[in-house]
Design goal:
Strand 8 and strand 9 form a beta hairpin. The radius of gyration is 19 Å and the shape is globular. By secondary structure, the chain is an alpha+beta fold. It has nine helices and ten strands. Strands 1, 2, 3, 4, 5, 8, 9 and 10 form an eight-stranded mixed beta sheet that branches. The two termini are 22 Å apart. Helix content is 29%, strand content 20%.
Length: 270
């Protein structure tokens, strides 16, 4: 089954220099667009920059995959007419991982949780022996830096996630009516579960639940969302880092599948 899946088409005080930069939809797209080939973005050269808390905004975005059908969630702005992956500012006191999952739910309506995948990164292994090694991580797959004013910086982390399995969706039915429409922090992806076992949790023809009216402001009420095949989604996002988030995310999922199959189980991989 995995071979078939892989073959399918990733402060209120302001200074005089802190006036907002007006970005039209075209300029916004340009800011999100990669240079050069428009198909395979490359990392920029390292930079030195310093921002205090009044001049820095931290956000997170997420590519949410339905593994069994090789599809990914994409959003569409019904007024301005562009496609995008769900993303936004993290709340005060919130970590970036939770912010990514929450924004994914609020902007798309799909409950999700981050998915550990094999990924080249520069973070050290924990020295605490109680934290076991795993080749699968939930580190950002891309990071973007964009100005939001003449003196304020936006840092955006992109993560990979999966749609909720049926048992987690069923838990939502036990919440009150108020809680049902709000973001709920999910249990993490089980460390001892293979992707094959994860897919087997869904019955044939299972369709991930898309919750309605999850947007938290008037702008987000204009967003539509759906699940699209990998290459179709990447095509909608063509010319942006988001297209590579989708492609690299799916590549990481396929690599994890192969590692688990070749090792004959998750125990041998870990």
């Amino acid at each position: 089954m995995w071979k078939r899946l892989k073959g399918l088409p990733p402060s209120s005080s302001k200074s005089q220099h802190d006036s907002p930069i007006t970005l039209s939809p075209e300029k916004y797209t340009e800011a999100m667009t990669t240079s050069a080939s428009h198909r395979k973005p490359t990392s920029d050269l390292p930079v030195i920059a310093n921002f205090d808390s009044a001049h820095l905004t931290i956000g997170a975005g997420v590519a949410i995959f339905h593994i069994a059908t090789a599809r990914v969630v994409v959003c569409y702005h019904s007024v301005d007419g562009y496609w995008f992956l769900p993303k936004g500012r993290r709340d005060a006191g919130e970590d970036s991982v939770t912010g990514a999952e929450r924004e994914g739910f609020e902007e798309s309506g799909y409950r999700n949780r981050l998915l550990p995948i094999p990924l080249r990164h520069r973070q050290p292994q924990a020295h605490n022996p109680s934290i076991p090694y795993s080749p699968f991580v939930t580190e950002p797959i891309w990071t973007q830096l964009m100005p939001v004013s003449r003196a304020a910086q936006y840092v955006l982390f992109w993560y990979i996630a999966e749609t909720f399995p049926p048992d987690l969706e069923d838990l939502v039915t036990g919440y009150s009516e108020t809680e049902k429409g709000a973001y709920q922090i999910p249990t993490p992806f089980p460390r001892n579960m293979t992707l094959k076992e994860r897919v087997s949790m869904e019955g044939e023809g299972y369709e991930p639940v898309r919750h309605k009216n999850t947007g938290v402001n008037e702008e987000e009420k204009l967003y539509e969302s759906c699940l699209l095949p990998i290459e179709e989604a990447a095509g909608k996002l063509r010319g942006t880092v988001m297209a590579d988030v989708v492609r690299r995310g799916w590549q990481g999922i396929c690599e994890r599948m192969e590692m688990e199959e070749e090792a004959g189980g998750l125990e041998e991989v870990l």
